[in-house]
Amino acid sequence: AHIVILFGKRMKINLVPFSCDPGAQPHKRRRTSEPIEIEDRLESLICRVGEKSTSSLESNLEGLAGVLEADLPNYKNKILRILCAVARLLPEKLTVYTTLVGLLNARNYNFGGEFVEAMIRQLKETLKSNLYSEAVYLVRFLSDLVNCHVIAAPSMVAMFENFVSVTQEEDIPQVRSDWYVYAVLSCLPWVGKELYEKKDVEMDRLLNQIDGYLKRRQKIHVPMLQVWSAEKPHPQEEYLDCLWAQVQKLKKDRWQERHILRPYIAFDSVLCEALQHNLPPFTPPAHSDDAVYPMPHVVFRMFDYTDAPEGPVMPGSHSVERFVIEENLHCIIKSHWRERKTCAAQLLSYPGKNKIPLNYHIVEVIFGELFQLPSPPHIEVMYTALLIELCKLQPGSLPQVLAQATEMMYMRLDTMNTTCVDRFVSWFAHHLSNFQFRWSWDDWADCLTVDNEKPKPKFVKEVLEKCMRLSYHQRIVDIVPPSFSALIPAEPMFQYKYEDESNTSLPGFATAVTVTNAIKNRASNEEILAVLKEIPNPNQDDDDDEGDGFNPLKIDVFLQTLLHLAAKSFSHSFSALAKFHEVLKTLTESDEGKLHILKVVYEAWRKHPQMIAVLVDKMIRTQIVDCAAVANWIFSSDMAHDFTRLYMWEILHSTIRKMNKHVQKIQKELEEAKDKLEKQQHKKDSGDEEDMEKNSDDEDGQLEEQIERLQEKVESAQSEQKNLFLVIFQRFIMLLTEHLVRCETGSVDINTSWYKNCIERLQQIFLMHHVIIQQYMGTLENLLFTAELDHHILAVYQQFCALQL
């Protein structure tokens, strides 16, 4: 990795994950620092070209081409590597770098040829490594080299034909042919005009093939990926359909596109004299089972030209300019997302910003990424930080656009996907916390006149609960109008049922007092267990001697008392659980015990969801409860009134992630042990010392035993993981089936707020954990998602399967 000055910021960029030339050697420290300084200077010059400068971009490019040409004899490999890297890593400056390569090719034909070969090598490497988004940038770069007279148009058309021929392959997943079609279509805004002028017949044939493919591909998966289920006011189109409509319109407009910066036009007289290179024949690598193709997605649409009334007009959703602008903004975020200030500055200094309503485009692209299903390209908190930074840089205009977007999303909550509503809640609460929680709440008074389970009041309630996590209860009471009191979260107080003197008749009251005193007097685990032994089991007759079974009263008395004494903070609660871990393990030996302990945590802390979440998390980590118990508890009838609350699903997803990490950790240990054994045996084969053999035999034996033990642990963990998903899906099916039967019997519409929430939570489980669930598809199909299942529930499973096909 080299430190380069990039866009005025110091930024680390790993230039050579793949060698772009056959003789590439890793950096060795040289005796003299001069060559390194020159190399770093070249890197800096190339990366910074096209930035703010007193002279024009064209004169900068001409000057840089002269510098690089002079350095080619000594630093050719270095220059090749840097140019290959920027083609892959800085796609938003695509045409700047293709022009630079065009100028170098015009001056040094051999260098142009070597660069094209290096790019083809890099393209093959990226495809082999499943880096498909980077591969798209490389193909686009190659296609734009046609405009710079570096690559001959017929050979580019031939490459596109090979890409589109993938649609004729048999027994491949649809996502494979989708990617190759997308790679071709997404190049056409840049190179369509040039290719049509030179090879119109071949291009027509190519587009007809693509049209045929798009008409026959299946799109069962689309509803699962849409942010809104309603098609009004803006259709939520599948990405290939949308891009195809944009390319069709571009073709109809005779390939005239008005937004791409094309510096090479200024050098046309120089470039048209250059000799061109033919691309070597490129055969797409064959499909393999370990290939991970990009998932399809839906194009997020929130604004159109009517929403940005002042200033430049927003391009229509099917104009290719909309695709180019959005693509470039996505590229800027991808290049700079780790540095929010740089990222915000780059977005706001987007070329051609005076011709478009830039703030609207930026806000739409950011929310499009935040709401992308199954998951956003970057961590969610990054988008909050980026929007805050943009508001600081454009205080006079961007906050208004953001407020308009928030209002629009609030108005469309009825049809918004539940997973996206969760992200909307988290973003909005976090955003408000950075602006003194100021918001015109009275504008949302319409949510007070409908049932609290409806999307709007539910959203406001969840936002206020998240705000309370980022502040404190009284602050939330103060900022919200009194009319909203029904939606304000309860004060997070502990509910201790053995506190009130009037409850002395409550079973276990006297023991609770004894346990309180024992804990205060620093009693040991054994002493506490001795006190609890006196508690009769309400589930057994008096003459039943088997007192060691599940006793709910013991758990009630002990856990209520312990948590009450430790209620001051998270840390106090954690220390209490750690100190009396042995007692808790003894009380929860059975599955009923594990379920009951979660029930007690909920009863005691039901007014403090965050405390419930952290305590459940701690109990899973310390193995007081297991993941399946948490899943059963969430779906139990005791939790029915909180079933649609956001914190419940945060707990469930956190539980699934813990299970998945546990399996991955053991799998990693097993792989490492196998590698170690392999290395030792390799060493033994190459060595000839007898005593070394004796020692290594012992070590081999130990390692083989360790591998055997780990193998068993992996199988056991995977079985537990599979069981967890079976429990979750089984409980979903039971709840949904009961609802559907109840509605059918009573001739009631099935589409209630509860049903929408539940069916979309089922989709959420599939989407968020799709990589793991794929491993157990056979079992799920045989045991749960059978043909007899109600079609409403089965449709979710079929949509999920379609994502992978």
From TrEMBL:
Record's compositionally biased regions (Acidic residues): 687-703
The organism's place on the tree of life at top rank: Eukaryota
SUPFAM superfamilies named in the record: ARM repeat
Keywords attached to this entry: Coiled coil, Cytoplasm, mRNA capping, mRNA processing, mRNA splicing, mRNA transport, Nonsense-mediated mRNA decay, Nucleus, RNA-mediated gene silencing, Translation regulation, Transport
MF terms in GO: mRNA binding; RNA cap binding
A GO-annotated cellular component: nucleus
Subcellular location: Cytoplasm; Nucleus
Occurrences of domain MIF4G (ranges): 39-251
Main location class: cytoplasm
Region (Disordered): 675-703
Segments of skewed composition (Basic and acidic residues): 675-686
Gene Ontology BP term (one): regulation of translation
Pfam families (UniProt xref): MIF4G, MIF4G_like, MIF4G_like_2
PANTHER family referenced in this protein's UniProt entry, alphabetically: CAP BINDING PROTEIN, NUCLEAR CAP-BINDING PROTEIN SUBUNIT 1
Family: Belongs to the NCBP1 family.
Protein name, as recorded: Nuclear cap binding protein subunit 1
Biological source species: Pygocentrus nattereri (Red-bellied piranha)
